[in-house]
Specification:
Blueprint lengths: L2 E11 L7 E8 L18 E3 L1 H8 L7 E5 L9 H4 L9 E6 L4 H9 L3 E4 L7 H8 L6 E5 L5 H8 L6 E4 L5 H13 L4 E2 L3 H4 L4
Parallel strand pairs: 2-4, 4-5, 5-6, 6-7, 7-8, 8-9
Antiparallel strand pairs: 1-2, 1-3
Bound molecules: iron/sulfur cluster.
């Protein structure tokens, strides 16, 4: 089976737990949601490549220690097969960024020890997501400020995630201050900021 890929590139991960690490990003094409604040137009650009070709691109020298599977929504495609390869059994750390709507694929990935970054976008299935990855020591939730209803926000942070990030909406000045206000209210909350955009990186 071929994979729909938008791009494979190396950059700095500036978001969440692994902020500051050099990473190879695999952006899978396509998404099942249509968020009005979506800032990844590249998700609609698709190239079909085989599993072998994808593996080759990920492994191009120099190989960063960190691999980020992102999108679009990566779990619309069987990405667990990529991880199954055994090619990644070295010290590299693989992280998945997901909207959490494809629970079956998400569980397969969590079972294989991926770091899961759950970025909730609509309420469907959240309970399942939390119950399946709550024991994943490296799971984190990243909330885009201003995109959840008060009920959804309270529900999410009420689950007791070990790592909760608030990310201001890019280009919305007031969102930065509102994020700081939330951090005052929830002192364990950290800010995730898209610094790569500030410095002109992808
Ligand atoms: S889930 Fe993410 S990639 Fe998909 S439309 Fe929403 S913001 Fe964009």
């Amino acid at each position: 089976m071929d994979y729909q890929i938008s791009e494979v590139f190396t950059s700095i991960q500036f978001e969440g737990l692994h902020s500051g690490t050099l990473a190879r990003f695999v952006r899978f094409a396509g998404c099942n949601l249509d968020c009005k604040w979506c800032d990844t137009p590249q998700k609609n650009v698709a190239e079909l490549i085989s599993l072998g070709e994808l593996r080759k691109r990920i492994n191009e020298d120099p190989i960063p220690q960190h691999i980020v599977l992102t999108g679009g929504e990566p779990t619309l495609q069987p990405i667990h097969k990529l991880i199954d390869f055994g090619e990644f059994e070295d010290e590299r750390f693989i992280a998945l960024e997901t909207n959490g709507t494809q629970i079956v694929e998400l569980i397969r990935c969590a079972d294989q020890g991926l770091g899961i970054t759950f970025s909730p976008k609509n309420f469907a299935g959240w309970k399942d997501v939390y119950s399946q990855i709550e024991t994943n020591d490296i799971a984190e939730v990243k909330i885009i400020e201003g995109t959840l209803t008060p009920y959804e926000f309270e529900w999410i942070i009420g689950r007791g995630w070990k790592r909760v990030y608030i990310q201001p909406q890019w280009g919305v000045k007031e969102s930065f201050q509102r994020s700081i206000d939330l951090m005052n209210e929830y002192p364990y909350m950290r800010m995730s900021y898209q610094t790569h955009k500030l410095v002109g990186l992808r």
